[in-house]
Predict the 3D structure of the following.
Amino acid sequence: MLLAEDDRAIRHALERALTLEGYEVTAVADGVEALAQAHRTQPDVLVLDVMMPGIDGLQVCRVLRAEGDRTPILMLTALVETADRIAGLDAGADDYVVKPFDVEEVFARLRALLRRTSGTPFEVPKEEEKRIPTGQLSVAGLRMDVQARRAWRGERELELTRTEFDLLELLARNAGIVLDHATIYDRIWGYDFGPGSKNLAVYVGYLRRKLDEPGAPALIHTVRGVGYVLRED
């Protein structure tokens, strides 16, 4: 694991906690060191602070994604506005934690990211397994190649982050079924962050921006007070 955090106290505390949790941690203090270390060692996961001198966490993320590096990235940020979170997702981050954070939340998000990286499959109902060909999904004009992790709406290929793809796959596999917040959190992040979390809403909003087309019906619908469903009205 590569940890990049310019605040020495936070860096040392988080490095110690992660090491005690069983991670092998390389900790650096800025984005320049983070890029150099990522190129040298190819870590399994990166934890990047957004605000760092010189090259910040968002720039590190953009550079790695531009190079084709799909290593999971968890951002640490003191910025809490939705626009700031979207900027992180735009840069290619897979998830984020807002400071001040509980270290247990960091552990939970890392476990979920690494579980997705290892290819642990979703639990699909037996009737869904019979209906959907292995590795292929097709519903409401949406087509997904699960093994290649590619998705299209009509003829247009969608550029999705790891988390966006997982969320879309879950909704597509359960098309027409309303999935509540707790179920989605458990399936995608492996942890229910509670009713106060905006994490899911941010990802759904960002996914809608990539899916929706002028004049075409919306695919992801909000069922107020319950959750989300993928269907073509």
About this structure: The radius of gyration is 18 Å. The CA atoms of residues 12 and 27 lie 8 Å apart. Confidence is low (pLDDT under 50) at residues 119-134.
